[in-house]
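hey so u asked for the seq, here:
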Amino acid sequence: MIFENITAKEVYLATLRKMSSEQKLKKACELSDFTKMLYITGLKKRFTNIGEDDLKKKLVERLQKCSNSNF
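ran it, structure tokens below
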């Protein structure tokens, strides 16, 4: 993560330290869902005339390109 200043990074790290493992996992899931929503919104803006089925295919196709094949 890139921070503009050291204070923001310190606050971020202090916040993470205060969170329980369960809270960190929940936050990670929330961020993952938010990222997926942003990605889908971007696809819809880029491909304005695409249907839902084709949009889902495009999403899967793009995600497979991004997938880390080392896992």
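The helical segments are 6-18, 21-46, 52-66. The CA atoms of residues 20 and 26 lie 10 Å apart.
lmk if thats what u needed
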